[in-house]
Specification:
homodimer; 313 residues; BirA Bifunctional Protein, domain 2; eight-stranded mixed beta sheet; 10 helices; 34% helix
């Protein structure tokens, strides 16, 4: 036992086995569908003012820990058309919640395609994972009191709500929420309780999502973005969208968001490839496991979770 | 093109495809043989005086980047008997060589077994990877001027030399090498040129390998350790051994090597599990690819290599 964790308990063994089976199912689907596995760097150079990166002492330089395959995804997509990576990711998270780890694994996909296509890819992948587990992890699911039928009933297409619709639903329900704000945990939780399978929220306003995402062609106040949410109150477990694919648009957006171009030269250089539509998404492995295994705290989804207060063992 | 890299070249695409195929072959073999995929932490707490760890600013604490699944492997092995991890690894490497990255991926296996068994596992895994590529990566191998027959002829059992034998061979060949010293690059390279398939060196002296390894039962000056070397002059691509499995032996060895027990409490705690033999190995993915793809510099095996002088892009 370390801290409050008993590694030898049947419950913890079942969670760790499901973790392995989720990864195997994801890779099977991705490999069979022609995605090439790639690795971006974990240690990345200056990220300017982007919040949330852990700092690494890299010889006499400052460096940071990755938050995802962006912007490296673009070179891989230029080479192979469709790629994926499954790798650790890091985020300085100062809140004590049941939903955040500072170190987590992500399943990330990037592809030459538009937003609608990447949403369909994401639902195919998640449905495949759920259906695989419903066949190959029955013993572990039973141990965790997750009904096999809950995973069988995950059906494509997943319900899709726009951000506009979400605000409307929540306002009608009496929540004090205004258009343009980030959906906080209470709102996400409430929304997620209305569903019994994963669902999407699309087209978040500019400012709510990262500056990589392309603006909506007809409504420039929106981005071509998508979040994947788990049902039953679990909330967000993935995010993605269609990337900006023109250098001048990126430069303009960086100027608007006051991001120093000097520090971002390495990113801007990635835009040299001829313009092509590129979309992608990232699913937090531990979030997906938290929902599938019905875990109260996300730390149970990781054998050695890293939290604000805990780095031991 | 970034620096000297053209991502769109046929050569670089072939290397990246082989990288994906090596991983797929490794996982197939491990999954089919009952190994459970696990993840240790990337950010680890104080490592005392262990050299070679990058420092991370973890809120108001100092933390470090992992150098492998040790000592976490032990808890996973206690739960599952045999496990593997494929994940990024970090080492401060101040030398400018054609063989070192500061960030690399490792294929790591840990198991309830003795040294001889883990050597056999390692040769089965490496042979499987080579034979898989000889069938599934013919186009890429041709592009890289690697003969398919070079991979077909990788046969179990791999040649095994003891460290004693290696010193003897090198001394007879006129090298100025004495028993007890680490095999430097020149020696490793020379030895490796004598082979046309991967081979092992076993039983390194105490002090040449990490303190985790058990002493030889009959010759306490040796450890139950094993390095995997590539042929054709490429040299070391993996290392492993049988771990110390008794708490009192570990404490004694830590005292001998002047490792502070205070900082290592988290490691010592792992020894609480009832004694069982545990062995493991780690193969450097980029080293394996460097040999398979006949690359002059290891940086070609990684899309965004991290080196002493280079962290961009």
């Amino acid at each position: 036992m370390f801290g409050d964790r008993d590694f030898q308990s049947e419950k913890n063994k079942a969670i760790m086995k499901i973790r392995a089976k989720v990864l195997d199912a994801a890779r099977c689907w991705l490999n069979q569908n022609g995605y090439i596995e790639v690795h971006g760097p974990t240690i990345i150079p200056a990220v300017g003012d982007w919040p949330g990166s852990f700092e690494v002492k890299y010889f006499d330089k400052k460096a940071y820990l990755t938050q995802g395959l962006q912007p490296y995804a673009r070179t891989f997509v230029a080479s192979f058309g469709k790629v994926y990576t499954i790798a650790p990711t890091f985020r300085v998270e100062k809140a004590r919640t049941r939903r955040h780890l500072t170190e987590y694994w992500r399943i990330e996909v990037a592809q030459k395609c538009d937003l609608d296509t990447i949403i369909k890819i994401q639902e195919e992948l998640v449905a495949h994972i759920c259906h695989s587990l419903s066949k190959d992890a029955r013993v572990e699911l039973k141990c965790l009191r997750r009904q096999v039928k809950d995973l069988c009933k995950v059906k494509k297409p997943f319900p899709r709500l726009t951000y506009d619709e979400v605000i409307d639903i929540l306002q009608k329900d009496g929540f004090n929420v205004s258009w343009g704000q980030k959906l906080d945990w209470e709102l996400e939780n409430n929304l997620s309780l209305r569903f019994d399978q994963p669902f999407f929220i699309t087209e978040f306003p500019v400012g709510v999502e990262t500056f990589f995402f392309k603006s909506h062609p007809n409504r420039p106040e929106l981005t071509l973005s998508v979040d994947l949410l788990a049902p039953e109150g679990y909330g967000e477990m993935g995010s993605g969208g269609q990337m900006i694919d023109e250098k001048k648009v990126l430069l303009k957006k960086m100027a608007e968001e006051k991001i120093e171009q000097g520090d971002q030269k390495w990113y801007i250089n990635f835009m040299q490839y001829r313009t092509f539509p590129q979309s992608g998404f990232m699913i937090g492995l531990e979030r997906l496991i938290q929902w599938i295994c019905k875990l109260i705290h996300i730390k149970e989804a990781s054998a050695f979770p890293r939290l604000l207060d805990s780095i031991y063992p």
